[in-house]
């Protein structure tokens, strides 16, 4: 009888875009794979089903703090865990980590629980009164949930250190620090037919902590100075978070002719291959997937010297690291590429080399798969 793997996530997009290769590898090992995620994206749900995974829809309020909503989610998880009786549970993002880890206790059999910390999230990323209050409640819950994990994966050393400093990780707990979620080097590969204009591209959610407003300010300044000799594009989605760029602001930017394109796109690899430089001035990441995809496509990187971001760049080798929330330094780094276009090719080749050496999705997944025996 095949062993069963249950994967939990708070969005369908997360699993279908970042974990498909892992699911395919698990199925090749003749494991039955179940995915529990919200029914929030039919297209991505179909992508998961095509892998052979069994997809179960459970509603989860990923940003909300409603205890009744969370209790309903926890109850639903417990019901399906009891029904499926998995041998392994993989948790992605904080709510699945909290409730998925604890739900493993409803079954008498031993379930091997593993959680992937893909970033520290809103609760740990600021010093506002609300965030401090949330930490008071979340930290004990996290500590209890992680106590019931067999392996905890982190995407950078800083996130592990933060969890360790908060005494969330027990002594002796098995820890793996991965190079992000990895990138498919076949799907994301260099191509020669790039746009003739030097193009700076931002890929990610249009959030303040992703550095989107720093990118916009830099684009306005540089576009005014260099006009049509350079181009700027943004690909992502407006978020429900109040710190997100609004649709009205996007419309205004397009009217001002600062950006050539601002939109969401499914096949991002087709766009990356045509662009010049990936810019992600994020304040903190696990390991940014958009940067890894850009590296695999042979593009130079401008990102911040922030946890998760700094791991992707060797300064003056494949790009530049800038201070967090520093538009001036972002402009200076962009101008280095404008003033010396040979950097684009040299750094781009080096990005691909670094992607092959460190961030190949097969290398990353093999470190996870060794625990599924």
TrEMBL record:
Glycosyltransferase subfamily 4-like N-terminal domain segment(s): 4-156
Cytoplasm keyword on record: no
Any GO BP annotation: carbohydrate derivative metabolic process
Keywords recorded for this protein, A-Z: Transferase
Keyword Transferase tagged: yes
InterPro entries named in the record: Glyco_trans_1, Glyco_trans_4-like_N
Domain Glycosyl transferase family: 199-352
Domain of life: Bacteria
GO terms, molecular function: glycosyltransferase activity
Annotated protein name in UniProt: Glycosyl transferase
Name of the gene this protein is made from: pglA
